[in-house]
C-alpha cells in the first residue's frame, strides 16, 4: 500500500473510532453541558470521516474497516470504565487518553510520510490533528 492510501486509511479509522467512541459516551453521559461538548467533538470526527470516505471512494476503493476486535475492545472498555464513574471528569480523562494516542499516532505518520503524500491528504490529516489538539485543551477544563 502506498503512503497516500496508508495515511488516508489511518485518517478514516481514527475518525471512525472517534465517531463510535463519542456516540457511546453521549449515550452514557447525563451531564447536559458536557454532552454538548461530546456532540461537538462527534460532529468534527463525523465531518472528517465523511471527507476521508469521499476521498477513498473517489479512488474506487472501500474504506479499510477497523478490525472487529479493536472495536469490541473499545466498546467493552467504555462500558467498564463508566460503570462506576459516569462523571464528566472521568469521561474527559478517557477522551484525553484516546485523543493523546491519536495525536501521537498522527504526528508519527506525518513525520513518516513527509513529502510523500498528496497535499489534500496532508491537509485533511492536519485538520484532524489540529482538531484533536483543540479537543484536548477543551477537555482539560473538565478534569
H/I helix tally: 5
The CATH homologous superfamily corresponds to: Ferritin, core subunit, four-helix bundle
- What are the low-pLDDT stretches, counting only 5+ consecutive residues below 50? none
**Structure summary, number of beta strands:** 0
DSSP helix fraction? over 70%
Shape: globular
For the sheet with most strands, the description reads:
none
Q: Quote the average pLDDT.
A: 94
CATH architecture: Up-down Bundle
Strand content: under 5%
From the N-terminal CA to the C-terminal CA, the straight-line distance is 40 Å
CATH fold node name: Ferritin
Organism: Clostridium collagenovorans DSM 3089
Protein name: DUF2383 domain-containing protein
Walk me through the topology.
Blueprint: H1 3-28, H2 32-58, H3 68-83, H4 88-112, H5 119-140
Helix pairs in contact: 1-2, 1-3, 1-4, 1-5, 2-5, 4-5
Any overview of this molecule?
This is DUF2383 domain-containing protein. It comes from Clostridium collagenovorans DSM 3089. The chain is mainly alpha-helical and 143 residues long. The chain has one domain (3-140): Ferritin, core subunit, four-helix bundle (Ferritin, Up-down Bundle). Helices cover 81% and strands 0% of the residues. The protein has five helices and no strands. Helix 1 (3-28) packs antiparallel against helix 2 and helix 2 (32-58) runs antiparallel to helix 5 (119-140). The longest helix has 27 residues, at 32-58. The radius of gyration is 15 Å and the shape is globular. The mean pLDDT is 94.
